[in-house]
Each structure stands twice: as structure tokens, then as C-alpha cells.
Design goal:
Layout lengths: L2 E6 L2 E6 L4 H10 L5 E7 L1 H9 L1 H9 L2 E4 L2 H9 L10 H14 L3 E5 L3 H14 L4 E6 L8 H11 L3 E4 L8 H5 L7 E5 L3 H5 L8 H5 L5 H6 L7 H21 L1
Parallel strand pairs: 3-4, 3-8, 5-6, 5-7, 7-8
Antiparallel strand pairs: 1-2
Length: 250
């Protein structure tokens, strides 16, 4: 298998090596069964949220792929003597996924962001991936009355990938909550991705990401985020507890 799943803090993380992305994406599309194949790019905060939120936990456990984005998760897996997952920066990973889909002449659907941003994103993606067929787009921030029509439109298009951005009620939970009404295909949510493609937002600094400091610009924008130090300290306590438990079981 190209993907290996490890247990981490009673949840799961997947180990996907970059050289296995092509095979894994195509396997997800070729697998029998109906319904969406959700890929989740999870931060440390997502893992902590899944431990206290039953719906988020269920979504994570049912996801086709759970890939870490936080350096703290990699360090935690190593501390617990687990196999080390590969950490992914969302933007390059999504580019890799779309590159795979273009190679095999697959399709993509865009859902989210403001209409002008969505149009610009579509134009830029067409020029970058000319063989990737765009089979539809729906902006976010829509009235509730459109919900049923949106799900019907996505189901009729049967895209290989639905790229979900900002302006969706429930964010990535929308995918999980509506899974019975969504078609087979890969669903991937990232709040900023369509706005980055539209050049209305900058992608996080690769240098800061590699250093595990991608949160610094967020703290500068919202100094209250500094209080995330407390859940981070709780995470360290959890790691110590699981390490002690593992040692006792051994």
C-alpha cells in the first residue's frame, strides 16, 4: 500500500510519501463505492479539536486521507516512537493533486470564495493546467435556499476533484454533513486556496513553513492567537501521558 495509517493520540494520521501521490489519488478515484473521498490537511489545532468534538472526530476517522501540516505533529509522532508522517504544506500539495488529475485528463469543480475571485482563480488554473477540465464553479457566501441546488449541480457534474474554499457553512464539515448527497470523487477543503489561485491572498511563506513558524503572520494579524500557547502546553502533557502509558504497556 502506498499509504500507511498510524494511530496518534487515539486518532489517525496517514503517511503518504510524495512519490506515491499519483498512485494514491488515482486509487481513491478508482475504489468501488459511492460518496466523497475527503482529504483532510490537519494542523495541531485540528487534532486537538477532534479529541473534544465528536463530529470533527468522526469526520477525521472517515476521511480517505489525513495528512499533517504542523511540525508539532511530526515531532509528536517521533516522541511516541511512531513511524514519521510526511508533513505537507497545503498549497504545494493541492498543486501536486491537480497535476496528477491533469496527467490523467480528469476533472475539477470549484466551490467557494467570492464570485470575482472564483472567476480569476479559474482563469489562472486554466492557464496552469490546460488539460485539467473544469466542469463547474459555484461561489461561496450563498443564501441557504441554494443548498439543494448546489449539491445537485455538483452531483450531476461528477467531478474527480471538488476544491472547496471560503464562504461555505461549516467549512470542511459541510463535506461530511452532506456526504450522502455528494458524488464519488475527491473533496478537499482549504479556506484560502481559491483566493490564493486568484492572487487575492499570498500563500504562506515556504521558509516559515519549513521552520514550523507559519503561525507567526496570524499572530501579528490577531495578537489574541498568542493564547494558543495553552492548548499547545496541553498537547505536550498529552504526549507525555501517552508516552508513559506506552512504556507501562511495554
Amino acid at each position: 500500500m502506498a499509504v500507511e495509517r498510524i494511530k496518534f493520540l487515539d486518532l489517525f494520521l496517514d503517511i503518504l510519501r510524495p512519490e506515491d501521490i499519483d498512485e494514491t489519488i488515482m486509487r481513491l478515484l478508482d475504489e468501488p463505492g459511492d460518496g466523497p473521498r475527503q482529504i483532510m490537511l490537519v494542523s495541531l489545532w485540528d487534532i486537538l479539536r477532534a479529541r473534544r468534538n465528536s463530529e470533527f472526530r468522526a469526520m477525521l476517522e472517515s476521511a480517505a486521507l489525513v495528512l499533517p501540516t504542523s511540525k508539532s505533529l511530526i515531532g509528536g509522532a517521533q516522541f511516541l516512537h511512531k513511524k514519521t508522517p510526511v508533513r505537507y504544506e497545503p498549497f504545494p500539495f493541492i498543486i501536486a493533486v491537480m497535476g496528477t488529475l491533469e496527467k490523467y485528463l480528469k476533472t475539477v469543480y470549484f466551490f467557494g470564495s467570492r464570485n470575482l475571485s472564483l472567476q480569476k482563480a479559474e482563469k489562472n488554473i486554466r492557464s496552469t493546467f490546460p488539460s485539467l477540465r473544469i466542469v463547474g464553479r459555484i461561489p461561496g457566501f450563498y443564501p441557504r435556499s441554494m443548498e439543494k441546488n448546489i449539491k445537485t449541480a455538483i452531483a450531476k457534474a461528477e467531478p474527480s476533484l471538488v476544491l472547496v474554499g471560503s464562504g461555505i457553512p461549516g467549512k470542511q464539515n459541510w463535506i461530511y454533513r452532506n456526504r450522502s448527497r455528494l458524488p464519488k470523487g475527491i473533496f478537499l477543503w482549504d479556506a484560502s486556496i481559491l483566493d490564493i489561485f486568484a492572487e487575492r491572498k499570498k500563500r504562506p511563506s515556504p521558509a516559515l513553513f519549513q521552520a514550523g513558524l507559519e503561525y507567526l503572520p496570524q499572530i501579528l494579524k490577531n495578537p489574541l492567537r498568542i493564547f494558543r500557547i495553552f492548548p499547545y502546553l496541553w498537547y505536550k502533557i498529552l504526549l507525555a501521558f501517552y508516552r508513559l502509558r506506552k512504556n507501562k504497556e511495554a
